[in-house]
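Bit of a strange request maybe. I'm writing a small parser for structure token strings and I need a real example to test against, not something I typed by hand. Could someone generate the tokens for this chain?
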Amino acid sequence: QVQLVESGGGLVQAGGSLRLSCAASGSIFSINAMEWYRQAPGKQRELVAAITRLGSTNYADSVKGRFTISRDNARNTVYLQMNVLKPEDTAVYYCNALLRVSGGSLSNYWGQGTQVTVSS
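Reply from user aminoacidic:
Good idea to test on real output. This should exercise your parser:
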């Protein structure tokens, strides 16, 4: 059984910062890519940022220069530092991990989501 648990969401004023965390636990053999997605009301889920096991990163154009993704492989945890937040960043943020369970194959796992609300 694998669980991804996000934390760090909340309400912040425009221009403020938040740091999201997502910890994976369970019978994990290895974790490949870890990603953050977001979904605003009435919109499709979109990729915000991704990071490989070796630390290569990729960002959506809308967050480049403001958000930073990082990970701690020893803790099976991925972070998203969000600075200069804008009202359009308001969404539920989801963590995704491509991982291999012990004795199993590669699969995608999702967290339950954490709400980020940016007021103007």
